[in-house]
Specification:
90 residues; mainly alpha; 2 helices
């Protein structure tokens, strides 16, 4: 009977240690998940900021202003505009 009790105590100790190890692994994985989700949120915010910056830089009014200021471009005179038909046979 004493051997059976000793065996049961050893099994109980092993099970308790396995539960502790399992909880530790679960917490570690959870913190990694949290870190990954934070990184995802940070990248999402950065993506939104980059899209806003791109839309600002690519705005037609800005492109036209830069073309005039830096490249000296100006709209063509009415006599310089030639209309081209894309489908002449149709």
């Amino acid at each position: 009977m004493a051997r059976l009790n000793l065996l049961l105590v050893l099994i109980l100790l092993v099970c308790a240690l396995l539960v502790v190890a399992s909880n530790h692994r679960a917490r570690k994985v959870f913190t990694e998940l949290e870190a990954g989700q934070k990184r995802m949120r940070d990248l999402d915010v950065e993506w939104g900021q980059l899209q806003l910056e791109q839309s600002t830089l690519a705005a037609h009014v800005r492109v036209a202003a830069v073309a005039r200021a830096k490249l000296g471009m100006k709209p063509p005179a009415p006599g310089q505009i030639i209309s081209v038909d894309a489908n002449p046979g149709k």
